[in-house]
Structures are given as structure tokens and as C-alpha cells.
Write a structure and sequence with these properties.
two-stranded antiparallel sheet; Rossmann fold; 9-stranded mixed beta sheet
Length: 421
């Protein structure tokens, strides 16, 4: 297979790049990357990316301000784009036009791919990541956002497969559920196999081979169109998709869309290998990396127990004035070491007691402590000290934003096994 030229959008600290280069550093070549955080003056993630991959390795500019002509031609686009509102609306003067694109960064992906398609340099693979709730958003009309995305990719000439994958289900050290999307041009050899949707979802697909699932019981998966006659009109999809049964699920955790028809069903992981635990990560942490700052003093423990405990709170809706009882169950304290970790969140760093931060009983001295940066990196399967040079809080934030690199590595390996270039 020839060299695969990759561009990495919304690069963060380079999780996609880590995974692909582990799959085959001689084959996957990142030729352009972009990272821009509009809410901060100091571009911490970009600075980390450049420290790891070299000065000039990542463009630090708002992607909306980058012309498509300034992005080199590529074979593969990867990126973990933020979850936003993907609704669109028709213009008043031109019913064929679209305005009000609220999911800004998704539409930047669309703009770049559209530009390359028009220039006869259509990318051969799109590999995207988002939160698991993407396929059910918004809550007021389940599936609408994902329907807009699927149809927009179809309009650009792509067929799509998707899976919601929990990394821990396949032996990785963190319980992190995310939606992963692969898209291929309709001319791709991969698309021929996708036409038998059931076999592709359960046996032959890239996701199915990389992350096996249990066989489905029952008949074939049925095909559906997004809308019917107005499938290609994104504004109509946005305004009318799933209006009759807005509370019902349309898209399950696995599926494909081929030539405007989507097939979806629920699948379960089928994995019998080793399951990495939080304890294994902790056991391999050199003591030199664990400073006193990460330990919880005896007088702080009651604050942590309170935050981690179950609670019921009477609240008032600000708009209606109606009172209701808010309740939440307790969290493990300390976190168990005999299973994969809970999901890392962006607020993982800092000493302040929190419901969601990890606290473990140190197996060496049996004191309670928070996780140190290299442990968080390894839970996302980054190299040790990938994010060194930033504060502990910022390093924790990076890992809360990142994906599990092992997922990308497995998909990258499976793509190499296919004839798609």
C-alpha cells in the first residue's frame, strides 16, 4: 500500500496521530494538522503538539479562516470534533441555500471535504470521533443531528459506517464510550462490501474486524431513508427528521449508510482477551512521579466523602418556578483498582474535592491520592509524559478532552489490511 497522507483537525495533543503512527509509522504520514482553542489566550494544546512533533508541525489558526487551497491534498482526514447543534435552515430568498449552521466545526469538516471533492482530490477515508450521545441528539428530536451529518456526507458522495465503542470492552484501561465514524467515497472498493449491511456490521466491516461483536439474532437489518423524497435537502432533514416520534431512537450503536439508505442495529462487544485494570496502570507508576501534592490529607477526606456520596436536593426551575427533587447516587470512594477506570473528564485536575475526580488507595502506602498525569496519559493510552511541560491541571484537562489512542490504532491496523487506496 502507498503512503497514506493524513490531515488531523481539532488535533488537541495528537491522539489520532499517536494511534495511527503506532499502527504503522512508515505508512501513515500526517502532512497537515490544525489546533485552535478560541477561549484561551495561551494555546496550551497546540504548544504541546509542537513540543512532541516539532516546530511548525501544527497550524495554530481558526480553521474557519483557513482556505481549502492552503491545505495540502490528503488521503485521510481524522478529527475529534466538538458536539454541537447541527441544525441548518433555508435562506429566505433561495430555498436551495443553507444558513444558520450552528455546528460550526462539523461544517468546517464539510467545507474542506467539499472543496477537495470539487478539486477532484476527494479524500479516501474520513475517520471521526464524537461523544456517544451524538447519534441521539438533540433530546427533543432524537437522531436529527446525526441524520444531518449522514445526509451531508452522502451528498458529498460518501458511504458511512459507525460504531459506539467503549474502550474497556476491548481490554483497554478506561471505560470511555465514544461514537466513531468512518466514511468512504462511493467509488471505494470498501463500499462494495457495505452493500450487504448485515454482514458488514457484524462480520466484514472495518469496525467489526477491529472490534468484534456478537452475532445478531433475528432477520436481516432493514434499510431506511433519512427522509424520502427530500433526502438531499439538508434544511428539510434538519426541520422535519423524526418529527412524528421525537422521543424514539432512530440510530442504534452500529450502522452503515450506503447510497442514501441507512441500516442500524444494536450490537454487543465480543471480546475474550486480557482486560487492563486501573490497578495495573497504578502499579507501574514510578514513585518519583507521585508528589505529596497528590495525596489527600485526613482532614480533607470528609469533603471527598461528601462529594462522592449520594444526595437529594430540592431545586426550583428558574423559568417555571416549579420545585423538584434532584437526586444522584453515590460514587465509589476510593475508585476500585480491579477494573478499568471510569471516564476521565476535563475537570480531573486540581486538589479541590470533586464527585468526578478519581481517588485511589495507593497500593504502596495505603494513603488516598489523586491520579498523577502519567497515569491519566496511560488511561488514554498516550506515551508516558506526552504532555509534560504544562501544569498538572492542564495535563489532566488534555486527557479529559482526548480519545483512547488504542481505538485509533486498531482501526488504523485494520485499514491497512484492506484494499482501499
Amino acid at each position: 500500500m502507498d503512503e497514506i497522507r493524513v490531515i488531523e483537525l481539532f488535533a488537541g495533543v495528537g491522539g489520532f496521530r499517536v494511534g495511527l503512527e503506532r499502527a504503522d509509522s512508515g505508512l501513515y504520514k500526517v502532512v497537515w494538522s490544525n489546533q485552535w482553542e478560541p477561549s484561551t489566550k495561551t494555546q496550551h494544546a497546540w504548544r504541546t503538539y509542537e513540543r512532541v512533533y516539532g516546530e511548525g508541525s501544527c497550524v495554530n489558526k481558526d480553521i474557519a479562516q483557513v482556505p481549502v487551497k492552503d491545505i495540502p491534498d490528503f488521503d485521510m482526514l481524522v478529527g475529534g470534533f466538538p458536539c454541537q447543534d447541527y441544525s441548518v435552515a433555508k435562506t429566505l430568498r433561495q430555498s436551495a441555500g443553507i444558513e444558520g449552521k450552528k455546528g460550526v466545526l462539523w461544517w468546517e469538516i464539510y467545507r474542506i471535504v467539499e472543496g477537495k471533492v470539487k478539486a477532484k482530490h476527494a479524500p479516501k477515508v474520513l475517520f471521526l470521533e464524537n461523544v456517544d450521545r451524538l447519534v441521539q441528539s438533540p433530546a427533543t428530536r432524537r437522531g436529527r443531528d446525526f441524520a444531518v451529518m449522514l445526509q451531508s456526507l452522502s451528498n458529498l458522495g460518501y458511504c458511512v459506517e459507525w460504531r459506539i465503542i467503549n474502550a474497556a470492552d476491548y481490554g483497554m484501561p478506561q471505560r470511555r464510550r465514544r461514537t466513531y465514524i468512518l466514511a468512504y467515497p462511493k467509488s471505494s472498493p470498501l463500499v462494495q462490501g457495505m452493500k450487504n449491511a448485515t454482514k458488514w456490521i457484524f462480520q466484514d466491516g472495518v469496525f467489526a474486524r477491529a472490534f468484534p461483536v456478537s452475532s445478531r439474532v433475528g432477520g436481516p437489518v432493514e434499510g431506511h431513508r433519512i427522509m424520502g423524497e427530500n433526502d438531499s435537502d439538508l434544511a428539510d432533514v434538519s426541520q422535519h427528521f423524526n418529527l412524528k416520534t421525537p422521543d424514539q431512537r432512530v440510530f442504534e450503536n452500529a450502522g452503515v449508510m450506503v447510497n442514501g439508505v441507512f441500516y442500524t442495529c444494536k450490537v454487543e462487544a465480543n471480546y475474550t482477551g486480557h482486560r487492563t485494570t486501573l490497578g495495573e496502570i497504578v502499579a507501574n507508576t514510578p514513585r518519583a512521579y507521585i508528589s505529596e501534592n497528590f495525596y489527600i490529607s485526613d482532614n480533607e477526606i470528609p469533603n471527598w466523602e461528601k462529594e462522592k456520596g449520594g444526595k437529594k436536593i430540592l431545586r426550583t426551575n428558574k423559568e417555571t418556578g416549579i420545585q423538584y427533587m434532584y437526586s444522584e447516587g453515590g460514587m465509589p470512594f476510593p475508585d476500585p483498582l480491579d477494573r478499568p477506570s471510569r471516564t476521565i473528564i476535563t475537570g480531573e485536575g486540581g486538589r479541590t474535592a470533586s464527585r468526578f475526580k478519581h481517588v485511589i488507595e495507593d497500593p504502596v502506602n495505603h494513603r488516598y491520592r489523586r491520579l498523577v498525569p502519567i497515569e491519566l496519559e496511560q488511561l488514554d493510552m498516550f506515551p508516558v509524559n506526552h504532555t509534560q511541560g504544562e501544569t498538572d491541571e492542564k495535563r489532566a484537562f488534555f486527557m479529559g478532552n482526548a480519545l483512547v489512542c488504542g481505538i485509533v490504532e486498531k482501526v488504523g491496523e485494520e485499514l491497512i489490511n484492506r484494499q482501499w487506496s
